[in-house]
Structure formats: structure tokens, C-alpha cells
Amino acid sequence: MGSVQDEPGRVEALGRLCRFRQEFHACLTRRADVLFEVTDAVLCTDGPVRTLVDLTLAPEHRRGHGALYDGLNSGRLEIARLRRALTDLPLPAAADGRLVLAVDVSPWLRSDAPTSAQRLFCHVHGRAKNQSQLIPGWPYSFVAALEPGRTSWTAVLDAVRLGPANDATAVTADQLRAVVGRLIAAGHWHDGDPTILIVMDAGYDVTRLAFVLADLPVEVVGRIRSDRVLRQPDTTPTARHPRPSAEARPRVRPRQARDLARTPAHHDHRHHPLREGHRDQLGSAAPPADPPHLLDRPHRRPADHRGDPHPAAGRPPAR
Predict the structure, then answer these.
(1) E strand or H helix at 23, and its extent?
(2) How far lies 242's CA from each of 238, 239, 245, in Å?
(3) Is the dihedral of CA 306, 203, 215, 158 positive or negative?
(4) On the chain, which terminus has fewer CB atoms closer than 10 Å, C or N?
(5) How far from each other are the two terminal CA atoms of the chain, in whole angstroms?
(6) CA-angle at 241, arms to 238 and 242, nearest 5°
(7) Across-strand partners of 131?
(8) How far is CA 28 from CA 73, 79, 80, in A?
């Protein structure tokens, strides 16, 4: 019976997968074999992984549970080389060839690990009768390349854990600068190509990030919350009159900027309706929601933080 030849696209994809697996094995500098098999077991296990010992039952893990714990405790991974290996892979692009990157924070909840260091109160939604909660855990900032169309597959390029003393915007700026630098070094962007689009949620300081990343070939796009107010100079045309002399020229007040979006929260009373005039509402007003990834707010303190029982004179105690 003659052999059946695979499609060229499938052969090329398998070749890329084999090269990436070899490079990933080279990134493991200690206990490489057991860590490589643990990774295969995590990817091939049906359903979520709830305990480590369950990974030893997967066919891809050919060692005992003792080797599993020894690899996780004593193994080493070269993070910088792994990041370069992920960047060297083919990345999805939009219809016009533009790279689209998304940045967001996803928490790893560690409520049952009180001895774990640098935990934060992470904002989660959808638990406990679909209500917002603050649960101790580790927040991670992810940068991924998005595919066009309706799909849930993303190419994760970088992940950084945020600590209690970190500024979320500063960490995101450094992370994006490093990712864009690796993309340019890998040949995914050249002079004359469309700029890289970076999309983010409403909790990010888009203005500050756009200023810090102004020297990179990127465009920063952020979502606007419904309780925000946009302002621009009043461009209402006025009639032209002869210019009076300096003595007869009246003193006029400068034109005030007009609001493009105004919600009931900006009125003296929130139940008063919006008045007709030169203010336009951006959208349906929503109550101010705590962004899921803004960690520099007062209530985003370490899980083991306690207020100072003896605050300085003239200062209120810590919340």
C-alpha cells in the first residue's frame, strides 16, 4: 500500500512545532526532561489540572511523582530565551498586515496560601452569586498577539508578575517596550510597515502610555469608561467686527472648554436629569466600577497589610 502524502501546510506546521519544542527543551537548563514531560502532561490532560499528582497519571509523563516534585523544586528555565523563541514564531496579523497586541492582567488566585509572598487583593467578578470580590492572589500582566475574526486563540508573547510596590503603568510600559523590541529584532516589523496596534481595557492610563511609548512604531488604543468626560476647545464661530482700540477694548473671559460627555454623577444631585445645551452624553451612565487590573489604588494593598496603629500627627490612619 502506497504512503499518503500530507498537505504542504500541515507538513510546514509540524516542522515549526518540532523546532519550537527543541528550542523549548533547550531553554530548560536543569531537570530538562522531567519539566518537558510535565509541560506535555499539562497540555494533554483532559479538563483542568487540580493537583500535581494527577499529572503523573497522564501517558505523556513517564516518571514517578517523586521526579515531578524534584523537577518543579530544582528545575530551571531560561526566561529570556523562551521569550525570544515565542517571538520567532509566526504571528497572526490583521487584514492589512498590521500586528495587533493586547495587554491585560489576569490574577492567579492564592487565597489558600497565606505563606506565599507578595500576594495582592485581586478584583474578580462572577464568583459568589455573580458579585465583585477581592481575593488574595498574584496578578500577571500578559501581552498577546490577536488573530482577526471571532476566535479565542491568542499568541502569548510575555507575562510579568506584578508586585505590591510596582506601578502598573510603568511595568506595562517596560513590558510593551521589550516586546516591541523583540518583534522588530525578529523581523516582524520593518520601516514602512503599518504601526503596531496595542489595545487595552479601560483601567489603563492610555494617555501616559502613549506619551512614554511615543518613540516606538505603535498606536495605543484604550476603551473609555462611561463615566468619563471628554473636553475640547469651543469652536463656535463668531461674527467678525472691526478691531477696537486698546483703550476701548473690553476685558473678556477666555472661552471655556465644553464637555463632550457628561453623566449624572457630575451634577449636584444624581437624580437630576441632564440639561439641554452644549453638553453631549457619551453613553449610558454606569456606576464607577473598579477596574480589574488597576493595582495602584488605595485598596490594592498586600494581603498581609495592616493599618498603622500610631499614625503621624495630623495624618489620618491607613485604610
Answers:
(1) helix 8-27
(2) 13, 10, 10
(3) positive
(4) N
(5) 77
(6) 155
(7) 127
(8) 13, 9, 11
C-alpha cell read off for 255 = 472661552
Written as one letter, the residue type at 142 is: F
Per residue in 163-216, pLDDT (tens digit) is 888 888 999 999 999 999 999 999 999 999 999 999 998 888 888 999 999 999
Contact in structure between 292 and 105 (CB atoms under 8 Å): yes
pTM over 0.70: no
Query: 67-84 pLDDT, tens per residue?
Result: 889 999 999 999 999 999
Q: Which three cell numbers stand for residue 180?
A: 516591541
| Strand ranges (E), the chain | 28-30, 76-77, 100-109, 120-127, 131-146, 154-161, 196-200, 218-222, 231-232, 258-259
**CB distance 100 to 146 below 8 Å:** yes
- Beta pairing class for 120-127 and 100-109: unpaired
